[in-house]
Amino acid sequence: MASTERKTYTIGTRKSPLALVQTDLVRRALQTAYPNCDLKVHGHVPTQIPDACVLGAMMPRENPRDVLVIKKGLPWMTLAELPAGSVVGTSSVRRTAQLARHYPHLVVQDIRGNIDTRLAKLDAEDGPFTCLIMAAAGLLRTGHENRVTQYLDSKNGKMLHAVGQGALGIEVRTDDEVMKDMVNKIGDMPTTYACMAERNLLRTVEGGCSAPLGVETEWIQDDNGKSLLRLRAIVVSVDGKEAVELEKDGDVESIEEAEAFGKQVALELIDKGAGKILEEIQRQKRQ
């Protein structure tokens, strides 16, 4: 792009406060890389990627973990400390299933709304909730870090996060080579590889975004100093009574290798019984 040429581009997003904050992160990164671009935010974008579009790049990932948020004034600091009968607010099947597996003494209740709405429901004096389970990234990006009581992962709280959680994907038209080049300049390859592996895992097990599938990815080094992608995954029945878990390290240096690695992990999960768990969930939904 010539430095004297000024282009106008439109960025699509939802209208929620979190979506607008996340979109502004992309806008500022693009304007830093391309000062001569005018970038406009468009407030309507479908949740499914249409055939004419492609995931062009992913921004550096925010903390992908879930977090525990305790109601103001209550003394507990971890999931393990919560007394029997405590009410945990979440609308996520994945979180509900993992809570049922590891904390069957807790009560899960559905909660809806944006971040501020859910926090208000949590803190209401006459509200039923003891705590919420939320995505760390949403709280951090909207300035609510002070509400985080506990960060949750495989070692702390035994909760694995959702596929792609904390990552910002930039969708572009398949035939727009100029925009592909632009977003690639601000993309983060470690994030992209990790998320592509997670996404292809989910796609292969055919669980859909509402499946009780938790993942956790991290970059590690082997004994020779080579970077490997470690992928942990769990598929849990909704009642928490059945689960299939797997941890695997992969040599990933391209999107193709990331997707192949995700598929490999998925097939191993299916071989261990994850497919049967998901089939039973789908059967119950049809009843």
From TrEMBL:
InterPro entries: HemC, Porphobilin_deaminase_cofac_BS, Porphobilin_deaminase_N, Porphobilinogen_deaminase_C, Porphobilinogen_deaminase_C_sf
Pfam family, one: Porphobil_deamC
Domain Porphobilinogen deaminase N-terminal: from-to ranges: 36-180
Gene3D superfamilies: Periplasmic binding protein-like II (3.40.190.10), Porphobilinogen deaminase, C-terminal domain (3.30.160.40)
EC number assigned by the record: 2.5.1.61
Assigned keywords, A-Z: Heme biosynthesis, Porphyrin biosynthesis, Transferase
Pathway recorded for this protein: Porphyrin-containing compound metabolism; protoporphyrin-IX biosynthesis; coproporphyrinogen-III from 5-aminolevulinate: step 2/4
Cellular component terms (Gene Ontology): cytoplasm
Single GO MF annotation: hydroxymethylbilane synthase activity
GO BP: any one term: protoporphyrinogen IX biosynthetic process
Domain Porphobilinogen deaminase C-terminal: from-to ranges: 193-270
SUPFAM superfamilies membership: Periplasmic binding protein-like II (SSF53850), Porphobilinogen deaminase (hydroxymethylbilane synthase), C-terminal domain (SSF54782)
Cofactor: dipyrromethane
Protein family membership: Belongs to the HMBS family.
Name of this chain's protein: Porphobilinogen deaminase
Organism: Uncinocarpus reesii (strain UAMH 1704)
